[in-house]
Amino acid sequence: MTRLLLFFFLLSFSITAQEESEKLFFSEALSLNLNNYNTKVDNALERGEFHYAKSLFDSLVKNHLQGSFIDPLKFERLSSSISSTEEIEKPTIILTYASWCIPSEGEIPVLNKMAQKYGDMVDFVVLFWDQKKTVRKLAKQFNTNIHIVYVDEVQNNHMQTVKLLKHALGISLSFVLAADGEILDINRRPPNKMNLSENQIFNQNINFLSRQIAAINIDLNININELPESIATF
Known about the structure:
- There is one protein chain.
- By secondary structure, the protein is an alpha/beta fold.
- The chain contains seven helices and six strands; from the N terminus they run αααββαβαβαββα.
- The chain is 44% helix and 14% strand.
- The chain is globular, with a radius of gyration of 19 Å.
- The termini are far apart.
- This is Thiol-disulfide isomerase/thioredoxin.
- Keywords: Isomerase, Signal.
């Protein structure tokens, strides 16, 4: 009996190890496709094809990055129980920020309300690429359900991971992760648009974050049809 239990333990360990070794990490998937993506985007921008350039980002995510796994990355905690991407245990939305990259006016209030409503099922993480003293000032704007973490590039040992996560696709990103760290979606957060009304600004952020939550393709007892689309249903 003891030998049989040992056999099944070793078999289980072997299968788990094999699955881990077969994982394609985000940094690997991005490295394989980044040069081709950048070339196509540069050519599109030179021709003034801005809509096509955006579609190239969507295609990169859908065809090459979805299904990869978030890289192991340690970060400093300001108000969070999570100190690494390896500690993720729930579906998670990671929003990346920097002090000089100003979010659209309605983004933080909408994010706060979403975190308050769905925080028991989904972890919301705001990741600052910045120094602690700067992050501490900015963190006061966020709901207590939101994990506030930061990576000081100068002090971080995972420079290749930081380079790819921060610099390759831009800073204003949203990563949607399954509980096992699989990347379900990546999107650029809504930009500032000076010609929008206050309601329009709020609505674009409500719609964006609702789509991010909807991208979590496991049963969280969230009725996707009841996710808000605008202020009228928020």
